[in-house]
Amino acid sequence: MITEIEEYKKSKVVVGEKLQKLNSYIPQTAQSVILITDENVGALYSDLFPDYPVITIGTGEKIKTQETVDFIAESMLNLGADRHTFLVGIGGGVVCDITGFVASIYMRGIDFGYVPTTLLSQVDASVGGKTGINFKGFKNIIGVFSQPQFVLCDVNLLVSLPEEEVKSGLIEIVKHSIINDPTKFGFIRSNINKILAIDIPTLEYLIIQSVRIKIKVVTEDEKEKGERKKLNLGHTIGHAIESISGISHGFAVAIGLVLTARISHLSGFCSQETVDEITMLISSLQMATTSDIGLSELIQAIQKDKKKSLDTVDFIAIKSIGEVFIHPITFRELEKNIKAVR
């Protein structure tokens, strides 16, 4: 089943479309097309790519750097790319983030689209217009907001994912359900085995629902001045853990969600039952719910968070499954709370 969802500023997300149909989504105004992918995706799926030049980059957060941007820009120049070139990123979150960033700055901006190939990128990185690169190990410090023309979510590409990647993407779906959809939270809890087995209809349903939640928030607040900050639930702590430890994004955010729930309860915002529900769901995925990173090191990393303002950070607190709110908190208070709940 193909479901087309209109995104902010007339870009669109299409869930259930095939990678082989990519050509039909390229704008007629494009005078040339360049594909960007990574080594793993290229090895698996390059035979399904349309016949355009391909720029291949490495894998993982370690290559999400200015050096990779320079390599892509130089490759594009060598291919004769100009302001009428259309860029397509085919890969996971790193490929999507870098593709969008390069397209946004190359010759002051060219159009682009995504074919995300991981669950995490289909529900998160490819949707909403955030693009960027890391700086000195800290996530997404350099970047811009820029919307893709399209996002094609070929759910069948997920069958090649290892279980750990599926879990990593599922955590973003869990996050969306805690923010805005308690019914979906219950659905996830009841269908974990189907999800981890990559049951296509189940994943299509979850992807569509998550994308709709994110698009609704982005439409109201594209540049994260207010409501969109809620999408950072679990990420204030999770990004810090990821930057320090190097564990995958989803596994770091899983810990962030549990610690956020515990801090919310400690602060009197949510019930112990809510904490237990979130913890039990994440534990059932055999994912860690705490971290032994030193407290001072963790706070130092959190102080690099993009949502900070002087000595405070916009912490996303939980009221219940389906309701969160923005809670500005000082770093000193956050440090005290993390120490109390770990």
TrEMBL record:
It is an enzyme of class 4 (lyase). One of its GO terms (biological process) is aromatic amino acid family biosynthetic process. Pfam families: DHQ_synthase (PF01761), DHQS_C (PF24621). GO terms for cellular component: cytoplasm. Its EC number is 4.2.3.4. GO terms for molecular function: 3-dehydroquinate synthase activity; metal ion binding; nucleotide binding. Residues 169-308 form the 3-dehydroquinate synthase C-terminal domain. Its cofactor is NAD(+); Co(2+); Zn(2+). Residues 55-167 form the 3-dehydroquinate synthase N-terminal domain. Keywords: Cobalt, Lyase, Metal-binding, NAD, Nucleotide-binding, Zinc. Catalyzes the conversion of 3-deoxy-D-arabino-heptulosonate 7-phosphate (DAHP) to dehydroquinate (DHQ). This is 3-dehydroquinate synthase. It comes from Putridiphycobacter roseus. The gene is aroB.
